[in-house]
Design a protein that fits this description.
By secondary structure, the chain is α/β, with parallel strands linked by helices. It is built from 7 helices and 7 strands; from the N terminus they run H-H-E-H-E-E-E-H-E-H-H-E-H-E.
C-alpha cells in the first residue's frame, strides 16, 4: 500500500531529524515514573501508553500489564521485555478488551493529531478504560510555549491548559487535575538532566521554564458510553 509506505518513511524521517533518540530522556522518564507517576499505578494495573515513541514511559512503569501503541514501525524495537507493542493508530484501540485499562497516558501526542482524531481517540478510551480508570496527558501549553510551538513541523492542533480541559469535558471526560506548568518543554537545553534535579523540580512550587502542561481526567460518570 503506497500510503502506508509513505507514512512509514515520514515517521522514520521524523525520528531521525526532529525526535532523535536521546539518553537524557531515559533519565527523565525513569525519574518521573519513580517520583510522580508511580502514585497513580498499582501492581495489578493495566497501563496503556498512546503514541509511545521510544517507550521511555511504559518501560519504566511497574504493573501487571503494559501496552504501548504508536504508528512508528520501529517502536517495538525500543520496548522492554513484557511490554505489549502494537503498531497502529491511537484512533483504533479495538485490539483491547472493553473496560480493561486502568490508566492511559499520552505525552506530546495530541498536538500532532487533528481534533477529529483526538475526539475519536477519546471515544475509544471511554470504552477501554475501566469505570475508575484515568487518562493523563502531558504536552506543550500553547499559552506558555507559543514561540516554540510550531518549531515542530508536525504540530497541527493548538491547546492551552484551558482549551485542553474544555475539549476533554466536551468529549465525555471529567478533569481531576490540571497543571499549566509541569515540566520544561524539552531536554534539549544547557541544563543537566539528573534524577536528583528532576526530583527536586517536581517537589518545588517554583518551576522555571515549565511550558508543558499536565492534565489528569477520568470518564465523566454522568456521560453514557455510546453502544
Amino acid at each position: 500500500d503506497g500510503n502506508r509506505v509513505l507514512l512509514e518513511v515520514q515517521m522514520n524521517s521524523y525520528h531521525t531529524t526532529r525526535l532523535v533518540y536521546d539518553r537524557k530522556r531515559e533519565v527523565l522518564w525513569a525519574a518521573l515514573c519513580d517520583h510522580y507517576f508511580s502514585r497513580f499505578i498499582r501492581p495489578d494495573h493495566h497501563v496503556l501508553e498512546l503514541g509511545a515513541g521510544y517507550a521511555h514511559f511504559i518501560n519504566n512503569v511497574r504493573c501487571a500489564v503494559r501496552t504501548a501503541v504508536d504508528l512508528w514501525p520501529l517502536m517495538p524495537n525500543y520496548t522492554a521485555p513484557g511490554v505489549v507493542a502494537k503498531v497502529g493508530s491511537v484512533t483504533d484501540l479495538s485490539f483491547l478488551a472493553e473496560a480493561s485499562v486502568d490508566l492511559a497516558f499520552a505525552s506530546n501526542l495530541f498536538e500532532h493529531l487533528a481534533k477529529d482524531d483526538f475526539a475519536e481517540t477519546l471515544a475509544q478510551l471511554r470504552r477501554k478504560l475501566k469505570p475508575e480508570g484515568t487518562l493523563i496527558i502531558l504536552q506543550p501549553n500553547y499559552r506558555r510555549a507559543y514561540k516554540e510551538y510550531f518549531d515542530d513541523y508536525t504540530h497541527v492542533s493548538v491547546f492551552s491548559d484551558v482549551s485542553l480541559c474544555d475539549f476533554l469535558a466536551a468529549n465525555g471526560f471529567q478533569v481531576l487535575e490540571s497543571s499549566a506548568g509541569f515540566l520544561p518543554l524539552s531536554v534539549k537545553s544547557r541544563f543537566p538532566v539528573s534524577r536528583l534535579l528532576i526530583r527536586l523540580y517536581l517537589a518545588s512550587p517554583w518551576k522555571p521554564a515549565a511550558k508543558q502542561m499536565l492534565v489528569r481526567a477520568r470518564i465523566d460518570p454522568g456521560t453514557a458510553v455510546a453502544p
